[in-house]
Amino acid sequence: MCRSCKLRCQSADGILPPRQSDIVQVKAHHGSLYWQLNDIWQAPSWSSIEFGGKWKMLHYFAVRFFSPLISVGVEDNGDMLIYAVSDLNTDYTLNVTWNSFTPQCSLESKLIMVKGNGVTKVFQSPVISVLKNCGNCTRKSCIVTFVLGGPEGVTSPLNYLFLSSPKDAEGLHKPNITFTVEDTGRTIMVNLYCSSPALFVWLDVDDIPGFFDINGFLMMAEKYTVHFTKWGPTTIQEFTTKMHITSLRDIY
Asked: Where are the alpha helices (DSSP H) in the chain?
């Protein structure tokens, strides 16, 4: 289980940074592919969907990084830069809101016109200044999470930027994640509870067919709710019995 979780994280996070970096560098997105979507036989591979149709962590990441509007954070020459990448056909006035690990602070940029079918820089500041404005934050004790939004109601998926390697993180404790479930008909609602922030939370229900609306995520609040879409009949008892939860802190 631990080795499997590590491989899932490496596969998903190995494709995410190049995908985001390529978009920012070309200043426009005209389509991209990643290797590979699925498998034609059972084997450990770079595919994002298993032979039987089960989603791997990479596929959950792909849903987010192929969203029509995403925020991308990078560090360059000591500066933290956040870009808005839009595949929408309409221009929107947006800003970026970001939080630090715990969180220590919450900041918001000015509203900026984000061009449709293009890349717009919405924030730039020295990393040292960002950390200074967030109280006791250091590179190892804080992670930056951010999201785009605006008065028109358009938002992007939550994204993040590590300022150091997660393995060197300070204050990252075992999250002791627990859960409750509720059958809502076509979906099963899963309420997650943790005692501390958790990185790359992975939910698995063995051979129960279906998918979660989000997986491999950062759990930055004490309570987090996800939904599992069922592809076939199952019971709450079966779902609860087969539910496994793993996070990055569980593998070392």
From this structure: 2-26, 57-65, 127-132, 236-242
Report how far residue 60's alpha carbon sits from residue 127's, in angstroms, rounded to the nearest whole number.
29
pLDDT in tens, 30-82: 567 778 888 888 888 889 999 889 999 999 999 998 899 999 999 999 999 99
Domain 2-165 has CATH 3.40.220.10: no
Burial of 249 (0-12, 13-18, 19+ CB in 10 A): buried
Amino acid letter for position 18: P
Question: What six digits make up the tokens of 197?
Answer: 């922030």
For residue range 197-224, list pLDDT tens digits in order. 899 999 999 999 999 999 999 998 899 9
Nearest by Cα to 160 from 150, 152, 169, 151: 169
Amino acid at 238: E
**Both tokens assigned to 48:** 């994002």
Domain ranges of the chain: 2-165, 178-251
As given in the structure block, the two tokens for residue 174 are: 């075992």
Give Cα separations from 18 to 35, 63, 120, 169 (angstroms): 12, 16, 18, 23
Closest CA to 83 of 93, 92, 70: 70
For 178-251, CATH number? Answer: 2.60.40.10
Whole-structure pTM value: 0.85
Same fold: 2-165 with 178-251: yes
